[in-house]
């Protein structure tokens, strides 16, 4: 008993060291921009950079659009599958898993070849079209997480009974989805949204290959040309990721308990 | 027998609303899932198929294995080889370290808050990949990184003189561990939770020591989950590019970076070879995932 | 002639401020089947786990075969245990599960294989050795768990609610099978259950537990017919309680709803006019005259339910209500609600509750 506990503490301690050292080192490095004193100069420099502001705002916008597209795509589908077409479940689950199997770089490669300016669907011919394709690409990347979150949320409420109860009371489909189902899976949808945000905000591969003015390529560019700003950016990115995950944790406390729970 | 089947048929008839029995509304059913399938087809399946088909065509659009054969040329083969080695090393090391940490926080008798904090942190760290992660490791283990400098000033150990280089196989593997370990922790903790307390107790009443229980029951039960997750980590590392690109630029010749350069400027001077390169990536991550799913099904059967 | 094999002496167990087992004393003879019976939270499982060695008693001692095992680990106690949730090792086949204890004990392969085959035939699953637990039904899994516990020939068998997870039909057949195997092997057994029917039908002796204490230790016959405390009386079997007042403690006469009943035994510690609670089993009561039942009280029929072979009748006796069953007979019309009726019983069947 005693020995195993010591062993557990040692393992935990080693792990904690491995994970905290880079964070501490990065933070320390980010404070060293002014010679001889610790300062937040690197952060001031980064945040004051108009390119930072533009790319960050762009990526936030794209992330919000991605979340909206993801919700519109996933919620009705997951609901309909649970309610009316459970036999299609394995197919839909398989499709939502595909983005984990096909690397992002391959998906975007396909986009570039299929939706180039000379193709029948020339998304990439215009700036706006490229933005739309980037949102679509991100929605694809987020699909596994979004679908899983929503499907789990739907499982805890009894979709069929709720729908039938609403139908008996005379509700139409728009009312059922908008006023019954969505509020009940809102927590799950928001969890999926936070995760999507965390994935999308600093994404590099797709944004870079589609030449989008996004935060990820901006960071990469700064990394290649500056010394202290990248460390500040890394800390900012870590804080954003942490905030998204913290948001999910807080939301989980408000999640409805399973409707058909024993006891 | 007849009686029951008639009852069953009656029940089935009652369950289905009249509209469904006529079958007229069937197309409307499909309308509910049509947007999803159209989206998946257009932006996931067709673009991928486009590349896969392209991988087996020459410039004239004729079927050929030439592109696949060309993947065997030394520069591409070595890119695959180093990609596979880095992915495998980071998956195995990350898997073992993640397993050890998971066992420690679930079964090590540590305070409850440590488990909760570790899981939250793992959620963050597993998503903290890409460009910022590369920056963090440069600030830590780069030539001017904090750990590099401190090791030198405090202990006189110059790790770069000893052959370490962050922009190398081991440097990249170490960096990947930052998201691989937490991913393993997140996936394997539920499996360890699934080890029933009664199994340990049953083993004890049968005379087994703690070590015998772990060797004969707990580890074999965890094995499929562990192996499956290692494969998932492998695929995860294999497709990743942002971390490597931000860390090494194009110094390290791994497949995603090669593909990135090919998309950017046809460095291979053969678009169809680029398709074949992409096909090779899908093939490898696909095989890893198929085995992952196979292992997971096996362990779910046990842990039910 | 009886030899004490398991001896539990003065065991107390507290988790922090809450005491879950106190003053527990029990001697179990070799080959005896003893049940711990009680509602959930009564301490019966904790007591079993103390015997198994999973919990350390806060005070007291456990001896197996004359040896103090209080400080031994479970794997040093030479016991077999069956759990509620089967707890078969999912990665091992049925045969490997049964052979697990033999393997860790270093029994040679051939000997172990023979023993496994023997156990498989005892539990009547000789063809199942190569299957995995997930391929078996609950009842089959629990039989394998029993075989696994018995294969290393333990000195003591501990059964922790082994039938609770099974459906009713399997439960009845398996309890007969467990008892049969136990008798055949003559192994000393402790059986924990909350199901009185299981305890009554299987045990040599029953320990009824409540609030961490043994309320009564006795044979099923004693527990059912001579419950020592009000808790035992109400927990084991259905019971009708009649509230009355003592008329004459010396001759044992009590007054219930205006009727004087002579118990013909002295009521020690009671004075005339004291309240008294008396209990009657449903099967000891009838409506109208019945040979051998010498006492009667007037009442009014308040409810009649037809249950097929029996008719359950509720009779209001003053502020008390009494349930009794009469056999259905097609020629006799059932009692009618609202009729007055005399309930009759033998005064000697009345239990005085403490």
From TrEMBL, chain A:
Biological process (GO), any one: transmembrane transport
List residues of the ABC transmembrane type-1 domain: 56-246
- Which UniProt keyword terms apply here? Cell inner membrane, Cell membrane, Membrane, Transmembrane, Transmembrane helix, Transport
Instruction: State the annotated membrane topology for this chain.
Output: Multi-pass membrane protein
Q: Which Pfam families does the annotation name?
A: BPD_transp_1 (PF00528)
Q: Which GO terms describe its cellular component?
A: plasma membrane
Give the subcellular location: Cell inner membrane; Cell membrane
Q: Which domain of life is it from?
A: Bacteria
The principal localisation class reads: membrane
Q: Where are the transmembrane segments?
A: 7-27, 56-79, 91-112, 132-150, 185-210, 230-252
Family the entry assigns: Belongs to the binding-protein-dependent transport system permease family.
Q: What name does this protein carry?
A: ABC transporter permease
UniProtKB/TrEMBL annotation, chain B:
Q: Which UniProt keywords apply?
A: Cell membrane, Membrane, Transmembrane, Transmembrane helix, Transport
Q: Which Pfam families match?
A: BPD_transp_1
- List where the protein spans the membrane: 30-53, 80-106, 118-138, 144-162, 169-192, 212-235, 242-263, 275-295
Gene Ontology biological-process annotations: transmembrane transport
Compartments it resides in: Cell membrane
What SUPFAM superfamilies does this protein's entry cite?
Answer: MetI-like
InterPro entries cross-referenced by the UniProt entry: MetI-like, MetI-like_sf
What GO cellular-component annotations does this UniProt entry give?
plasma membrane
Domain of life, per UniProt, equals Bacteria
Q: Which residues form the ABC transmembrane type-1 domain?
A: 80-294
How does this protein sit in the membrane?
A: Multi-pass membrane protein
Identify its protein family: Belongs to the binding-protein-dependent transport system permease family. CysTW subfamily.
Descriptive protein name: ABC transporter permease subunit
UniProtKB/TrEMBL annotation, chain C:
Q: Which UniProt keywords apply?
A: ATP-binding, Cell membrane, Membrane, Nucleotide-binding, Translocase, Transport
Protein name stated in the entry: Spermidine/putrescine import ATP-binding protein PotA
Which top EC class is named for this enzyme in its record? translocase
Q: Which Gene3D superfamilies does the UniProt record give?
A: 2.40.50.100, P-loop containing nucleotide triphosphate hydrolases
Ranges where the ABC transporter domain occurs? 6-236
Membrane-topology descriptor: Peripheral membrane protein
- Give GO terms: molecular function aspect only: ABC-type polyamine transporter activity; ATP binding; ATP hydrolysis activity
Task: Give the reaction(s) catalysed.
Answer: ATP + H2O + polyamine-[polyamine-binding protein]Side 1 = ADP + phosphate + polyamineSide 2 + [polyamine-binding protein]Side 1
Chief subcellular location equals membrane
């Amino acid at each position: 008993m005693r020995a195993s506990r010591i062993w557990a503490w040692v393992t935990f301690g080693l792990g904690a060291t491995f994970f905290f050292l880079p964070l501490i080192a990065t933070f320390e490095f980010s404070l060293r921009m002014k010679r001889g004193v610790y300062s937040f100069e690197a952060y001031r420099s980064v945040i004051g950079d108009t390119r930072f502001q533009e790319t960050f705002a762009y990526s936030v916008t794209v992330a919000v659009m991605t979340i909206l597209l993801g919700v519109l795509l996933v919620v009705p589908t997951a609901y309909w599958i649970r309610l009316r077409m459970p036999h299609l479940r394995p197919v839909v689950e398989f499709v939502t898993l595909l983005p984990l199997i096909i690397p992002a770089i391959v998906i975007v490669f396909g986009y570039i070849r299929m939706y180039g300016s000379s193709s029948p669907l020339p998304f990439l011919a215009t700036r706006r079209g490229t933005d739309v394709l980037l949102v679509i690409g991100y929605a694809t990347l987020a699909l596994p997480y979004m679908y899983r979150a929503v499907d789990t949320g739907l499982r805890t409420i009894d979709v069929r009974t709720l729908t039938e109860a609403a139908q008996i009371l005379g509700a139409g489909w728009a009312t059922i989805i908008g006023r019954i189902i969505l509020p009940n899976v809102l927590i799950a949808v928001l969890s999926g949204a936070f995760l999507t945000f965390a994935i999308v905000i600093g994404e590099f591969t797709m944004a870079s290959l589609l030449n989008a003015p996004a935060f990820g390529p901006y960071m990469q560019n700064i990394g290649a040309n500056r010394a202290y700003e990248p460390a500040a950016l890394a800390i900012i990115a870590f804080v954003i990721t942490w905030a998204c995950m913290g948001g999910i944790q807080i939301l989980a406390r408000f999640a409805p308990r399973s409707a058909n729970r024993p006891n | 027998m007849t009686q029951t089947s008639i009852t069953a048929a009656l029940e089935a008839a009652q369950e289905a609303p009249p509209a469904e029995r006529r079958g007229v509304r069937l197309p409307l059913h499909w309308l509910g899932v049509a947007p999803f399938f159209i989206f998946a087809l257009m932006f996931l399946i067709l673009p991928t198929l486009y590349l896969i088909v392209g991988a087996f065509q020459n410039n004239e659009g004729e079927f050929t294995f030439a592109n696949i054969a060309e993947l065997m040329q030394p520069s591409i083969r070595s890119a695959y080889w180093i990609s596979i080695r880095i992915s495998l090393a980071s998956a195995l090391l990350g898997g073992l370290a993640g397993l050890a940490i998971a066992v420690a926080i679930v079964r090590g008798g540590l305070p409850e808050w440590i488990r909760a904090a570790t899981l939250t942190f793992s959620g963050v760290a597993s998503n903290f990949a890409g460009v910022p992660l590369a920056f963090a490791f440069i600030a830590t283990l780069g030539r001017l990184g904090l750990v590099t400098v401190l090791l030198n000033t405090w202990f006189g150990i110059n790790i770069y003189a000893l052959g370490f280089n962050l922009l190398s196989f081991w440097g990249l593997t170490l960096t990947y561990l930052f998201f691989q370990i937490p991913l393993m922790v997140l996936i394997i903790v539920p499996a360890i939770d699934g080890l029933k307390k009664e199994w340990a107790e049953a083993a004890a009443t049968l005379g087994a020591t703690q070590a015998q229980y772990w060797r004969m029951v707990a580890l074999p039960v965890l094995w499929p989950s562990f192996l499956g997750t290692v494969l998932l980590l492998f695929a995860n590392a294999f497709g990743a590019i942002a971390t490597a690109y931000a860390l090494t630029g194009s110094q390290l010749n791994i497949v995603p970076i090669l593909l990135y350069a090919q998309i950017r400027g046809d460095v291979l001077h053969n678009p169809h070879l680029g398709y074949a390169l992409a096909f090779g990536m899908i093939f490898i991550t696909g095989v890893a995932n198929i085995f992952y799913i196979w292992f997971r099904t096996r362990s779910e059967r046990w842990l039910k | 002639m009886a030899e004490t094999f398991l001896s539990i002496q003065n065991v107390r167990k507290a988790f922090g401020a809450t005491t879950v087992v106190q003053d527990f004393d029990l001697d179990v003879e070799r080959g005896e089947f003893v049940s711990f019976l009680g509602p959930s939270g009564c301490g019966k499982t904790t007591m079993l786990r103390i015997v198994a060695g999973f919990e350390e008693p806060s005070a007291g001692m456990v001896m197996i075969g004359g040896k103090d095992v209080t400080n031994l680990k479970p794997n040093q106690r030479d016991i077999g245990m069956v759990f509620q949730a089967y707890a078969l090792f999912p990665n091992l086949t049925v045969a490997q599960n049964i052979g697990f204890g033999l393997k860790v004990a270093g029994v040679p392969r051939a000997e172990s294989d023979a023993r496994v085959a023997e156990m498989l035939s005892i539990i009547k699953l000789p063809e199942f050795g190569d299957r995995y637990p997930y391929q078996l039904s609950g009842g089959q899994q629990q039989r394998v768990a029993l075989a696994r516990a018995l294969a290393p020939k333990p000195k003591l068998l501990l059964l922790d609610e082994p039938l609770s997870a099974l459906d009713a039909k399997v439960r009845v057949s398996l309890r007969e099978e467990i008892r049969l195997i136990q008798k055949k092997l003559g192994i000393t057994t402790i059986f924990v259950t909350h199901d009185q029917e299981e305890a009554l039908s299987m045990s040599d002796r029953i320990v009824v537990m409540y609030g961490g204490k043994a309320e009564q230790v006795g044979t099923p016959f004693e527990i059912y017919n001579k419950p020592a405390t009000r808790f035992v009386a109400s927990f084991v079997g259905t019971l009708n309680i009649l509230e009355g007042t003592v008329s004459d403690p010396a001759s044992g006469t009590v007054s219930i709803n205006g009727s004087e009943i002579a118990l013909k035994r002295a009521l020690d510690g009671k004075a005339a006019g004291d309240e008294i609670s008396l209990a009657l089993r449903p099967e000891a009561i009838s409506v109208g005259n019945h040979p051998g039942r010498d006492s009667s009280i007037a009442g009014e029929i308040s409810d009649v339910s037809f249950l097929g072979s029996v008719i359950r009748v509720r009779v209001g006796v003053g502020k008390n209500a009494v349930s009794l069953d009469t056999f259905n007979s097609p020629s006799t019309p059932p009692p009618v609600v609202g009729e007055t009726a005399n309930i009759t019983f033998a005064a000697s069947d009345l239990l005085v509750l403490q």
